[in-house]
Amino acid sequence: MTASNPVSSISSSGSSPKAPTVGQRRVAIVGATGMEGGYALRHALDTPSVGTVTAIARRTLGISHSKLKEVLHRDFSDCSPLAESLSGRDAAVFCLGAYTGSVET
User: Fold this and answer.
1) Is the Cβ–Cβ distance between 49 and 21 less than 8 Å?
2) Residue 22: how many CA atoms within 13 Å on its side-chain side?
3) pTM for this model (two decimals)
4) DSSP letter (8 states) at residue 41
5) Which residues, other chains included, contact 100 with Cβ-Cβ below 8 Å and sequence gap of 6+?
6) pLDDT of 26-68, one tens digit each?
7) How far is CA 17 from the centre of its chain?
8) What stretch of H or E contains 50?
9) Quick check: helix, strand or coil at residue 98?
10) Percentages helix, strand, coil for the chain, rounded to the nearest 5?
11) What is the largest distance, in Å, between two alpha-carbon atoms of the chain?
12) Which of 1, 3, 17, 18 is the most exposed place for a label (fewest CB within 10 A)?
């Protein structure tokens, strides 16, 4: 990643993810390295009707899957560089947040 390019796309499988077949959905998950985002990611990867999953996160996921494309994005105060990564998706799941270590009820 360079200062002039705040978005760095990497593919976990080492090549471009396969194109979805007819009827399969294209899903983007923002915050896929967190607890909730990780659940959403695993569910999307395991769902046959999902053809491609674009995971947008601050750090790499450390997994490889033929449906998965990772996009590293460090500065979520400016999401304009993500327009291309988010366009053409059938659904986007926003799981970005900060875990505080406690839950209030």
Assistant:
1) no
2) 0
3) 0.73
4) H
5) none
6) 999 999 998 899 999 999 999 999 999 999 998 999 999 999 9
7) 13
8) strand 50-57
9) coil
10) 20, 30, 55
11) 45
12) 3
Whose tokens are 């985002």? That residue is 37
The two three-digit tokens of residue 65, written as one number: 């899957």
Q: What angle do CA 54, 78, 32 make, to 5 degrees?
A: 30
Under 8 Å CB-to-CB from 96, ≥6 apart: which residues? 30, 31, 34, 37, 76
Angle at 44 between CA 43 and CA 45, to 5 degrees: 95
Alpha helices for the chain (secondary structure H)? 35-46, 83-86
Domains identified in the chain and CATH numbers:
7-14+22-94 (3.40.50.720)
- The contacts of residue 69 (CB under 8 Å, 6+ apart) are 9, 11, 12, 16, 17, 52, 53, 54, 55
Amino acid of residue 58: R
